[in-house]
Design brief:
This protein is mainly alpha-helical. The protein contains 8 helices and no strands. The chain is elongated.
Length: 228
C-alpha cells in the first residue's frame, strides 16, 4: 500500500507512522507482519541524525571558542565574555524559528553552527580592536569611538553584504533552502549587532584585566614602532 501525504513536516509524518503502527497492531492477525518503509522514513532518520549531531556539536564548539580565547588572552574572563554574544545570537535564531513555526530540519539545523562561525569572526575582530585602542588611548570616549570607526564599520559592511547575499535564497521555491537563506541573513544581522552592542557593554562594565594587559604581540609592535 502506497500512502501519499499532503504535508511536508517530519512531525506529521511521525504521527502518521505511529497511527499506522497502532492500527496494524490492533487490527491485523498476529501472524501478519506489517513493515513501514519509503522515503519518509529515510528522510526522518536523516533529519534526526543531523539534528542530534548539530545539537551535540554546539556545546563543543562553544567550548573550543572559550578555550581558544582564554589561551590567547591568558584569562578565563576573555572566554566567557567571548561566548556570551554567540549564545545570544543562537538563542535569537531558535526563538525566531519557534515564533514563525520554522521546523528543525537538515537545512535549519545547520544555522546554529554557522552562527558560531560567523559570530566568532565579528567578536574577535571587535575585541582585538577594543584591546588595541584601549592601550593606545586613556580617554574612554576616544578609544570607543576609534574602535567603532575601525572594526565597527568593517563588521557592518561585511554583515550587510554577506547577509544580503544569503537573503537572495529566500526567493527559492525550495522551502528548506528559502528558510536557510532567511535564517542565515538573520544570523548575520544578529551576530554583528550583538558584537557591536553587548560585547562593548560587557567589556566596559567588567573592565577585565586582559584588556588592560598588553600582549606579547603588542609589545613587539610597540618596539617596532619605537625603532622606526
Amino acid at each position: 500500500m502506497n500512502v501519499q501525504m499532503r504535508t511536508v513536516g517530519q512531525r506529521d509524518t511521525d504521527r502518521a507512522i505511529r497511527a499506522i503502527e497502532e492500527y496494524s497492531a490492533a487490527r491485523f492477525p498476529p501472524d501478519v507482519k506489517v513493515e513501514i518503509s519509503g522515503a519518509a522514513l529515510v528522510e526522518g532518520s536523516l533529519n534526526q541524525q543531523v539534528v542530534k549531531s548539530q545539537l551535540r556539536s554546539l556545546p563543543l564548539s562553544l567550548l573550543f571558542v572559550f578555550v581558544t580565547l582564554s589561551l590567547f588572552y591568558r584569562s578565563g574572563w576573555a572566554g566567557l565574555i567571548g561566548i556570551a554574544p554567540l549564545c545570544v545570537s543562537i538563542l535569537i535564531n531558535f526563538g525566531v524559528m519557534g515564533a514563525f513555526g520554522i521546523k528543525l530540519n537538515i537545512g535549519t539545523a545547520l544555522v546554529a553552527s554557522v552562527a558560531i562561525g560567523i559570530g566568532i569572526d565579528y567578536m574577535i575582530h571587535y575585541m582585538a580592536a577594543y584591546h588595541r585602542e584601549y592601550l593606545k588611548h586613556t580617554d574612554k570616549k576616544v578609544f570607543l569611538k576609534r574602535t567603532y570607526l575601525t572594526s565597527g564599520k568593517a563588521i557592518i559592511f561585511n554583515a550587510a553584504s554577506v547577509g544580503l547575499g544569503f537573503a537572495v535564497l529566500a526567493f527559492s521555491q525550495f522551502n528548506i533552502l528559502a528558510q536557510l537563506g532567511l535564517l542565515l541573513a538573520l544570523t548575520m544581522a544578529t551576530s554583528s549587532l550583538v558584537s557591536l552592542t553587548l560585547l562593548p557593554v560587557l567589556l566596559t562594565m567588567t573592565n577585565p584585566a586582559f584588556i588592560r594587559r598588553p600582549l606579547p604581540s603588542d609589545r613587539t609592535q610597540t618596539n617596532s614602532e619605537a625603532s622606526k
